[in-house]
Design brief:
The structure holds 2 protein chains of 2 kinds.
Chain A (H helix, E strand, L loop, with lengths): L9 H7 L4 H27 L2 H20 L7 H23 L2 H5 L10 H12 L2 H12 L4 H8 L3 H29 L1
Helix pairs in contact in A: 1-2, 2-3, 2-4, 2-7, 3-4, 4-8, 6-9, 7-9, 8-9
Chain B lengths: L8 H9 L5 H13 L1 H18 L2 H4 L3 H10 L13 H5 L1 H16 L2 H4 L5 H9 L6 H10 L9 H4 L2 H5 L4 H17 L3 H12 L9 H22 L5 H23 L19 H6 L13 E13 L11 E9 L6 E10 L17 E11 L9 E11 L3 E12 L4 E16 L2 E17 L1
Chain lengths: 187, 449
């Protein structure tokens, strides 16, 4: 008999979400602990605005829990949750683009907490990337997903994923090149 | 080199860093890397970018308020340690507990500050019974005999002269005749009261040598004889002189007794010792009852813990958010040793090397068995030191806890515990073993029954 929830797989915990409230709550807490950093990173870096990212984050977990109530076989829970989050993010961006100008939307949010200069530049560079490139960079670098998982989430072949990741990284490096050269010179 | 691969060197670099490059292309890539300075520079850039992303802690840390909102939205409780409802109270709980402990002690033992007049009961009874006590005598009794309880009974009083004869045989002889009359004519109310007093007052100090005990008895008997002679209305000069001689002798003995620097107290069942005993003296010569006379104790303990934790994260969300309950029983194996168990719940910080795959347990349940040693022979402001060790298991691994502190028990069996507690828990995470340690203050209630 397993002693605590940390020993269960994501799929087993997902199945437990269909049980009574006490078990479901514990299973959800464990899944939340495991997955929330990735989901939050995706929301925050993809949307760029903290308040909006938090709204999406909350909505994503609510939909995730509702989806779990349906009897379905789940083999890749992180990818499933990321797909839910991605859909909410994309819908949000579509609606917002219709209301705001591109400059308004892409205006970088000032953050006093960032002490790492390169990180601050990366966040700015992310906002200059296309939506596809930004998303795939986040899925790969922030969420650490394999090419296969990313292909599953964005519903594209792996060959396309490879090309997009390569282009996104090249673009980021291109934007940061002046700073990176300085960095190498002092190192 | 790359003419043998369908990927460019930059593409191979990206695939390699992402763990997607196959073995054949990997060799081709390393060949290119050794010759291409631009590729080496690109590798450094990509590694710098990756390192910066790894350090983006803001992105990987959902705010606690957001987590609570997510759970509340689903009708669940908070996944985090509950926020203390009254932060002010929690912040000062340790101080409040300490003050409560000290205050309770002082409130129940005023003699610690003001000095106690244990003999006032006897004096009051003498006045109540209408026994004539001169102002000078009263003053002398209060000053010179401040802490000598009346230890007398009808049986003891039956032969007062035998003891008095030790120091004043003439007094004893003179008193004897009148004393016989007293047994017939005088009221026995004072004796009955004295008898009751004796049952409530006990001499516990074994350091008092026999002569001291004899002196005490003599003082008591002479006091009683003096009282009775006065109350019987016998006022002839001889008796009066003899009785006053006896009383003067009492005062002298009282002074001798006071010189021994012992104070007798109305000892409860749990504090059967002199409160002014020095530590060295109490350690050297036990003033207490024999082991066989000690009650076999059972007690339960409810404690709160406030501690700092190591490793680096302190999950203690407030003061005294960790509690434990335990039960002990005297072992019978050795004096002062009790065996029992404790269980509780408290946070332990844990180390995670891989932020993408971890689970944190803010509150951990633990259970253990162990021993507690209460040093009854040692008294610190009315409380007894104790040491305790508990070994057992927790949700994550084995745990050991030790406490050094003091406890004070009141006559009802309820009391307080305070002390310093250290604990260490071993746990396994991501296939590595770690230990999480805590040290801090503990305090709580103890109930003996």
């Amino acid at each position: 008999m397993k002693r605590n929830l940390s020993e269960y797989t994501d799929s087993e915990l997902f199945y437990m979400l269909q049980k009574d409230k006490t078990i479901a709550e514990k299973a959800f807490a464990e899944l939340y602990t495991r997955l929330s950093p990735r989901i939050y990173a995706y929301c925050l870096r993809f949307i760029g605005n903290k308040e909006e990212a938090q709204d999406i984050f909350q909505e994503a977990f609510a939909k995730f829990f509702e989806s779990a109530k349906q009897d379905r076989l789940m083999t890749n829970v992180p990818a499933f949750l990321l797909r839910i989050t991605r859909n909410i993010c994309i819908n949000f961006v579509r609606k917002k683009e219709a209301l705001l100008s591109y400059e308004d939307y892409m205006a970088p949010e000032a953050s006093s907490q960032d002490s790492n200069e390169l990180l601050q530049l990366i966040k700015s560079a992310l906002e200059l990337l296309s939506e596809d490139s930004r998303e795939i960079f986040i899925l790969r670098e922030y969420d650490g997903l394999s090419y296969k998982d990313i292909a599953e989430i964005i519903d594209e072949p792996i060959s396309t994923v490879k090309i997009r990741i390569f282009r996104a990284k090249q673009k980021i490096r291109e934007i940061l090149e002046p700073y990176l050269k300085e960095l190498q010179r002092f190192n | 080199m790359d003419k043998y691969s369908k990927y460019s060197p930059s593409e191979m670099l990206t695939l390699l860093l992402d763990g997607e490059l196959d073995g054949d292309n990997e060799q081709i890539f390393y060949d290119s890397l050794s010759q291409d300075a631009g590729l080496q520079s690109e590798l450094k850039d990509q590694l710098s970018i990756r390192e910066a992303v790894r350090n983006d802690t803001e992105a990987f840390t959902p705010p606690a308020e957001l987590s609570r909102a997510v759970f509340a939205n689903l009708g669940f409780g908070s996944p985090l340690a509950p926020a203390p409802p009254k932060r002010f109270f929690k912040r000062y709980a340790v101080l409040a507990l300490l003050l409560l402990f000290v205050g309770s002690y002082l409130a129940t033992t005023p003699e610690f500050i003001f000095g106690k007049k244990e003999n006032s009961n006897a004096l009051a009874q003498m006045q109540k019974d209408g026994l004539p006590i001169s102002g000078a005598d009263e003053s002398q009794l209060q000053i010179n005999n401040p802490s000598i309880p009346v230890v007398s009974s009808l049986e003891n009083v039956a032969e007062p002269t035998a003891k008095n004869s030790n120091f004043n045989s003439q007094n004893s002889i003179n008193n004897l005749g009148e004393f016989t009359n007293l047994k017939k004519n005088a009221s026995n109310r004072a004796f009955a009261q004295m008898n009751s007093e004796k049952s409530n007052n006990r001499f516990i100090n074994s350091n008092i040598d026999n002569s001291n005990f004899d002196d005490i008895d003599n003082i008591s008997h002479n006091n009683i004889a003096y009282q009775r002679l006065n109350s019987s209305g016998i006022n002839d000069d001889e008796n009066s002189l003899n009785n006053h001689n006896a009383f003067a002798q009492n005062l002298e003995l009282s002074q001798n007794f006071a010189n021994n620097q012992f104070r007798m107290v109305n000892a409860s069942e749990y504090t059967k010792f002199s409160q002014s005993f020095s530590f060295a003296r109490s350690l050297g010569e036990s003033p207490f009852e024999k082991e066989s006379a000690l009650p076999r104790e059972k007690f339960v303990v409810l404690r709160g813990i406030y501690a700092l934790t190591r490793a680096e994260n302190n999950l203690q969300s407030g003061v005294m958010n960790s509690f434990s309950v335990g039960g002990f029983i005297s072992s019978g194996l050795a004096r002062n040793l009790s065996l029992g168990f404790e269980f509780g719940r408290e946070p332990y910080s844990q180390i995670f090397l891989d932020n993408s795959n971890y689970s944190q347990k803010p509150e951990i349940l633990w259970l253990g068995v162990g021993a507690r040693y209460d040093l009854h022979e040692f008294n610190l402001f009315g409380s007894n030191p104790f040491a305790q060790i508990i070994a057992g298991g927790s949700e994550l691994g084995p745990i050991v806890r030790t406490i050094v502190g003091a406890s004070k028990i009141y006559s009802g069996g309820i009391g307080f515990n305070i002390g310093i507690e250290g604990s260490s828990m071993i746990y396994k995470n991501q296939n590595k073993y770690y230990h999480s340690d805590k040290i801090g203050f503990t305090g709580g209630l103890i109930y003996k029954f």
